[in-house]
Write a structure and sequence with these properties.
- By secondary structure, the protein is α/β, with parallel strands linked by helices.
- Helices cover about 30% and strands about 20% of the residues.
């Protein structure tokens, strides 16, 4: 056998072996994951971390290399059996978060099988612009919206162009109305009080085959909601809750202008509840000023010692 033929055969063998090895690795990675799961794609408040033009100690920690960039609050929902993936909120970090869903979780040939929007504040819907003519030029991406959000997108540019060019396909939802994505995967939107300048605001209940979760990244104050957050958390296995600010006085402006439940307020509400209930809570949606956004901080540690959790990008929660 000639040397060139031998080298060619060796090359083929190595190439095929590598392909099979990679295939086995991909199968192993998938096998390590639940059949259905939620993954955290971001944890920061709308403006991200670091925040624009912030020269304070919180954001200086990023430029000094002490803290890493934090993507904006967002969840992914993956069903490996049905080969589908969904995203909850379309943030300014949409491009990276869609890529993370594809490369780390499921590449099914679709950019995403559905986008669920909570409301019309910049960190929660503006990412859909990347589906438009100037970017991907996507076709009919299902985008789940409440009635006021639907009207807002249809009647205001540049969002109306996404609709008219069929980049997105609006799917109207209703309060407390179940959306069956698959027989064992359901999503239910519910109204929550918030600063609704352009649209209503919703949280979501996500129900898988075995477990369920709440996602409430934005709400004014728990006592303004007609439901008891304590009772709602008890009904699910995971609760991703608004933790924009840690406590009063965190930012220089009057905090009544941007009402959110402080972490210390939520902790106080659950003070007498069982550890099992506290363990369900995963705080998310941290403002750049919030010490809970840091990798480690004494105030953050004091909360975890009580049984609460802080959402971490890349974490997976089986359904």
């Amino acid at each position: 056998m000639k040397v060139n033929q031998l080298l060619f055969l060796i090359y083929c063998f190595v190439f095929i072996s590598a392909c099979n090895s990679n295939k086995k690795e991909e199968i192993a990675i998938e096998a390590d994951k639940p059949e259905q799961y939620i993954t955290v794609l971001g944890t920061a408040q709308d403006a991200g971390f670091p925040q624009i033009n912030c020269e304070k100690e919180c954001c200086k920690a990023f430029y000094d290399g002490v803290e890493s960039k934090k993507l904006i609050s967002c969840l992914g929902l993956v069903d490996l059996k049905a080969k589908t993936k969904y995203i909850f909120d379309a943030t300014p970090d949409f491009t990276q978060q869609i890529e993370d869903l594809k490369s780390k979780h499921l590449d099914n040939g679709s950019v995403v099988d559905g986008v669920f929007l909570t409301h019309a504040h910049i960190g929660h819907y503006t990412g859909i612009m990347f589906l438009g003519r100037e970017a991907m030029g996507a076709k009919n991406v299902p985008t789940y919206v409440m009635p006021e959000m639907k009207a807002y997108l249809e009647q205001n540019g540049p969002w109306s162009q996404l609709v008219s060019l069929n980049n997105i396909e609006l799917q109207e939802m209703n309060h407390d109305s179940i959306i069956a994505l698959h027989p064992d995967l359901k999503v239910t939107p519910f109204l929550v009080p918030h600063r609704d300048e352009f649209s209503e605001t919703v949280g979501y209940k996500i129900q898988g085959k075995n477990k369920s979760a709440l996602f409430i990244p934005d709400i004014n104050k728990w006592e303004l909601w007609k439901r008891s957050i304590v009772e709602e958390v008890k009904k699910v296995d995971y609760a991703f809750l608004d933790a924009t600010f840690f406590k009063e006085g965190e930012i220089p402006r009057p905090m009544s202008e941007v009402p959110h439940p402080f972490i210390v307020e939520t902790v106080s509400l659950f003070e007498k509840e069982a550890l099992e209930t506290k363990n369900k809570i995963h705080f998310i949606h941290f403002n750049h000023s919030n010490p809970a956004l840091k990798e480690t901080h004494p105030l953050k540690d004091s909360i975890t010692s009580l049984g609460y959790n802080f959402a971490k990008q890349g974490a997976i929660f089986g359904l």
